[in-house]
Amino acid sequence: MKRDNIRNFVERVRAQGSFRERIEDGEVLKCTGKVIKISGGDVEDFFLNESTLKNFIATKDSTDAIEVQAIRNGVRRYYRISKFYKDRLFGGVAGKSSGGGSERQELGLISLLNEAALQGGKYYVKSLGKGLPIKEATKNEGLSQLKQEPYIDVFIETQNGKKLGISCKGESAPSLAGGGLVGMQVVVPDLLDRLYRVIIKELKRKYKDGDKVDADEIPDFFVRIPKSYVKKILIGNKKMGGPVDMMYIGPMDVDGKITSSGEIVINNNRGKFYTIEEYMRKIPNFYFRVRKRDLPRDKEIEIAFTTKNKSGYPLIFMTPISKKNNFRLVVTDKASSTGKKLEIAG
After folding, report:
1. Strand runs labelled E in 262-339
2. Into how many domains does the chain fold?
């Protein structure tokens, strides 16, 4: 073992920290602090510190071994050091943080938090709260009841028994309503009804059902979401794979350090956790943006107030011949200068 590895290994075992078994996502082996030495067929207790471990390594025969007692799934037994996964603290590489896009961020965050948690002790993230030391972070796998990506990206379990559902976001594109139209229907159906009434009322000032128009004639519409609805949308509900407890905002490539005081510093403090209320103060306004998509080559679209999509709402815009849906609804934090702002009354 390298000198730093010896020190880190001794500190983790004596702090009754944990290791993963064999691989990065292997079973957790929680050390009890007990260590034995096997030499010449004899087994004896071993007092572990840097000096005794260095001396053992320097003088051991090929058949000698050190074994550490650990608890795996409630069962205590002794494990040879070779059974422990060499995580990043020991010079290993976190392979599971090499995904793409949002998954890369989620896996990088999980890897960093678990690296700290495995060491034992009360390691914490300042923005999450010093009173919430990390026990384990896991990815929220699978789909929601709506058969979409769940609202919660990462679960964080704390040492005092809390389990927090975290929604992870990048720095450059604050977002809302990851469940899209289907998710909105579940959590704020009345808001969608009001939105469609506003859009249709505006379009009827100039167009009627069935009109064929150049898509460039119609600007994007931006409709501010009332704050009373924003909180509901951010939290979501069980059907959407929520409810979300906190938001995490940070770079997509996660790195960090663990200080001697126990703080986990993420991306030089660029990576932070926010309560829902804090996130709403950080991003004061959200807008529905209504725009055209998948336009035909000639850009001609048909106004469609009566033809419905699979969710039961008017298509609004469709390709005249193929009847393809040309209506796109997204959520953004800014309204463009070229768009037209509309308001939902009340």
Report:
1. 264-266, 272-275, 287-292, 300-308, 314-318, 327-332
2. 3
- SS3 readout for 85-152: CCCHHHCCCCHHHCCCHHHHHHHHHHHHHHHHHCCCCCCECCCCCCCCCEEEEEECCCCCCCCCCCCC
pLDDT tens figures, 188-206: 889 999 999 999 999 999 9
Residue 107 amino acid letter: L
Of 52, 68, 87, the last residue of a domain is: 87
pLDDT at 302: 96
Q: Ramachandran region of residue 279, left (φ > 0), alpha (ψ -120 to 50) or beta? A: alpha
- If asked whether residues 7 and 54 sit together in one domain, one would say yes
Structural domain including 329 reads 180-228+285-342
* Tokens read off for 137: 């972070």
Instruction: Give tens-digit pLDDT for 31-42.
Output: 999 999 999 889
